[in-house]
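User: Here's a chain of 204 residues. Predict its fold as tokens.
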Amino acid sequence: MNMLEANMRKVSDSLNSTVRLAAEFGDESLKDLKLYTSLVEKLCEIDSKMNTHRKALAESYAEQTVECFDQRYETSIDRKKPQVRGHKRYKDFVQYAKPLLNPSLQGQPSQNDNDDDDDGDLVMEADVGNMVDPISKRPLEVPVRNKQCNHVYEKSVIENLLKQNPRTRCPVMGCAAQGYVQQHLLEVDVRLQQQLIQTRSVFT
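Assistant: Prediction complete.
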């Protein structure tokens, strides 16, 4: 991990902490999800551009002259604006922040979701089908959602982990939740489970 990636992770962690504090202690003006998603969109745009330049550099290293290197680099750069709402960082943040700031809207699509184009919807559906348990790194089958932080795990895996170590914190990197994972705060996400089944039947 380079310095830029490390700093971006710190910013993401700080943003998660800010959202949690706003949800607990802030007034209504601080609970507007758009205040925070606009910042995450900028982070995702930086991340996408960084990956684009990194890929272009890797493709250009084989060139023998500076002129050829420059030409190859320029042609390898993707000039299109990144689709940040399909970015994993963006989706993870919305999944974390939305139920904290707007508990009454949990499970409902946000306005930002409705603004995405059809290609974005396909990316989202494909990503749902590819969701993996953060502990075992295997595809989710029976997803349970942690009510403390809204992160999702495979039911049998997290239950076994809690049996081995009751003082387990959320295994998702950068999670801002305080305290340990509590068995009684884990709930099977039936809606997500149905999405997984439906999406995998389409993409297989």
